Amino acid sequence: xxxxxxxxLLLLLLSPLTTAKENVTPEDERIRYEGRxxxxxxxxxxxxxxCARLSFGVNNVREEGGSIDVSWSSERxxxxxxxxxxxxxIASSEIFVGPKWRNKKQTSTLNLPKDASFVTIRKLTQAAxxxxxxxxxxxxxxxxxxxxxxxxxxEVVSLSPRKRVVExxxxxxxxxxxxxxxxxxxGTAALLIDSWLYDNCDLATPxxxxxxxxxxxxxxxxxxxxxxxNANARIPAFEGKYPLPYFWENQALLTxxxxxxxxxDSNNQLSPDLVVVxxxxxxxxxxHGNVPSNETFSAAYEEFLLKIFSAxxxxxxxxxxxxxxQGSPAESAFDPDNNRCSPCPHxxxxxxxxxxxxxxxxxxxxxxxxxxxxxxVVGDDDIGCAGHKNAxxxxxxFDYLQPLVSEIMDW
Length: 411
Ligand SMILES: *[C@@H]1O[C@H](CO)[C@@H](O)[C@H](O)[C@H]1NC(C)=O
Ligand SMILES: *[C@@H]1O[C@H](CO)[C@@H](O)[C@H](O)[C@H]1NC(C)=O
Fold this sequence. Notes:
By secondary structure, this protein is of the alpha+beta class. The protein folds into 2 domains: 17-157, Jelly Rolls (Sandwich); 164-409, 3-Layer(aba) Sandwich (Rossmann fold). Helices cover 27% and strands 26% of the residues. It contains 13 helices and 17 strands. It has helices at residues 2-14, 134-138, 172-175, 189-194, 205-212, 236-239, 244-250, 281-284, 294-311, 329-334, 344-357, 359-362, 391-409, and strands spanning 21-24, 32-34, 38-41, 44-47, 53-59, 66-74, 78-84, 90-97, 104-112, 118-123, 144-152, 155-157, 164-170, 215-221, 274-278, 319-325, 365-370. The strands form 3 sheets. Strands 1, 3, 4, 6, 9 and 11 form a 6-stranded antiparallel β-sheet that branches. Strands 2, 5, 7, 8, 10 and 12 form a 6-stranded antiparallel β-sheet that branches. Strands 14-13-15-16-17 form a 5-stranded parallel β-sheet, sandwiched between helices. α5 (205-212) crosses α13 (391-409) and α9 crosses α11 (344-357). The protein starts with a helix and ends with a helix. Bound molecules: 2-acetamido-2-deoxy-beta-D-glucopyranose (2 copies). InterPro entries: PCW_deacetylase/CE, SGNH_hydro_sf.
């Protein structure tokens, strides 16, 4: 009996590393970040971009399982917290939902099953649920402030970087706007006030591609944004006056003009293998004929591609894929001023001009035309709210683009 007690005591003394709690701060080097984050104060990292994510490895999860308590503040933010097994299957997953009004600090828990090997926490919501114009000034944006994590019953370890890096620059389709919605909320207050509940960047094409190709993912995308002008440009109050390239060049956070970002700064540690540019739809649709001239669009496209290539010039193999289309026959039949394929001839012309003007870089620029004729997105069960693709529709676009990406990247 005495011997047994002594042995138990010894075991207790020897095993406890993984039963203790450990506080891991946002600055801890074992945490990896994807997407643009900044740090407004020590102990806090924040971001507003969809698909932004942090990850870390876990070792020696105790027999009965462990847990992580994530400390964060937000308004209108949804996060997907997932624990993965080493083989890439999912061990546990939770959706964390922040308050709808008034920024609040909270702690959310994810259980760690014994076989968990790493944890990811990804932002599902886009930055400005009420548009990047007046709505953003009046109602707070969807900003995720991350204060750290308390880990129980497991050891935190660093993760090696993923195999590849993809940057995805676009508008609503790239942000996953309405991917979790259904058409029956169209025209209701639920869509107007609570659209953030239906954003899902993880189940949108960028999230699916990154998962499939084992790539780090940086998304700078927001509904309504264009290359030369935003949707409804004649009413700047809706979407603000700056199109997306301005934010890509200047800001860490879309919704905070005081947060600065310089894509050419190598300290940002972003050197993508593939940059997807999915812009142009909002330049041409819902504009009541007020669209850019061919010269204006082509010149802006050239300027943006040049800036991207030059920011990442240290990677001589970096490639750009210009995606356009991904609509359905139903949408243009319903509203002729809303045809996702209408910008495609312009994107194609702009890309051809770019190849003529910059033959060497042009060899690394590709067109990803996703037809709108019903051969990809049909317009029935693949549509979520507000005429945007649901998870099924987003996956169809992923299925269409994945072989193309494999081919041009040799992945
Ligand atoms: C959360 O993320 C995992 C991994 O990407 C995914 O399989 C799951 O569907 C996501 N959950 C939701 C509700 O989006
Ligand atoms: C502009 O480009 C489109 C698409 O290629 C073409 O159909 C149209 O004729 C061009 N317009 C002018 C004025 O050149």
